[in-house]
Design brief:
Length: 334
């Protein structure tokens, strides 16, 4: 099976999974009522405000990534970095996690930075993001313990899957076997060319990963790390004010919905389609929002966010070669 065919199969598999979840959520809904609400009952000022807030988060992520790249000896232009980030978001709509690879490829191509070092910075960035999300999860659990337990109890399949992953004997045995094999055959593989290449890649990767400790402007790194997630939260909460059935909910309800929906984005489907909708409407249900209204909210919030990423991502993809054409010509003439 060639690489292209494998990518097509992966794309169709992930897309089908997301589409199936989306279909399960919306298949029994009154389409005419949804159309009526979208036409007459949505305050689109707040929807547009949420998109503006989302754009601020993308700018902040661009600035933070630039700070993380500096310690590996490069200072990429803001324009290239921002466009790369937006293309990355777009690529994640095609394949989950493909965006991280594509944005590193863009910066490597136009800013002449080691690709593996860039991957290291992105992995470090993802670790920081996951840590931030876990902090928010703890805040939600402490503030809304009863609501969170209500969600878990009403969705026993989620509880069962979490328990199965943590206590999986296959996972534990697999890790043990891997460690034993590495120890037994360490002398044999240490002298191979493949091992040397892997070590070189890992060293580049490590250099990029540990870039956090070498960041000079640490205050701004921490500021952007907090600001990104604050904007993510406000982006969702702004949409609460767009609907009569959510505008009276308090900020904690918004935070709970945001955190739970964020875990929907972690699902292996393009752009969290289906999974995000499910988590958002289930979170809203904890605060008395009906299933029908929760579904409408999820549709508007996710669709507008996705549309913005698609539009800006495509524009970024088209603009990148043009703004870097002069640099390419200079490089060719040297």
């Amino acid at each position: 099976m060639n690489n292209t065919l494998l990518k097509i199969i992966k794309f169709l598999s992930f897309f089908s999974l997301g589409a199936f979840i989306f279909w399960l959520i919306y298949k029994d809904q009154d389409i005419e009522r949804i159309k009526s609400v979208l036409k007459n009952d949505v305050n689109y000022f707040w929807v547009l405000m949420s998109l503006f807030i989302g754009l601020l988060s993308h700018i902040s992520r661009t600035l933070r990534w630039g700070l993380m790249i500096e310690p590996i000896g490069h200072k990429p232009k803001f324009t290239n970095t921002f466009l790369a980030v937006m293309v990355g978001y777009l690529m994640n709509m095609v394949f989950p996690r493909m965006g991280e690879i594509s944005r590193c490829g863009i910066i490597s191509r136009y800013e002449k930075v080691s690709f593996t070092k860039l991957i290291g910075t992105v992995v470090a960035e993802r670790v920081v993001d996951m840590f931030s999300l876990l902090i928010l999860l703890v805040v939600v659990i402490l503030a809304q313990f009863g609501k969170v337990m209500g969600f878990v109890n009403s969705n026993p399949e989620i509880k069962e899957k979490l328990t199965a992953v943590v206590s999986s004997p296959i996972l534990l045995i697999g890790l043990a076997v891997m460690v034993i094999l590495l120890l037994l055959f360490r002398k044999a593989y240490k002298n191979t060319a493949v091992y040397a290449k892997i070590i070189k890649i890992l060293n580049n990767f490590k250099e990029g990963f540990v870039s956090i400790g070498s960041i000079k402007k640490k205050f701004w790194f921490y500021f952007h790390s907090a600001f990104i997630w604050l904007m993510y939260y406000l982006m969702l909460y702004a949409n609460f004010h767009a609907f009569d059935f959510t505008k009276t909910l308090n900020p904690i309800a918004g935070l709970t919905t945001f955190v739970m929906a964020s875990f929907g984005m972690v699902a292996p489907v393009q752009g969290g389609i289906g999974a995000w909708h499910f988590m958002a409407k289930e979170a809203l249900a904890l605060y008395g929002v009906s299933n029908e209204n929760g579904i409408i909210f999820a549709f508007v919030a996710h669709s507008t966010m996705t549309l913005m990423i698609i539009i800006i991502g495509i524009i970024s993809l088209l603009v990148l070669p043009f703004i870097n054409r002069r640099n390419d010509l200079v490089s060719e003439n040297k």
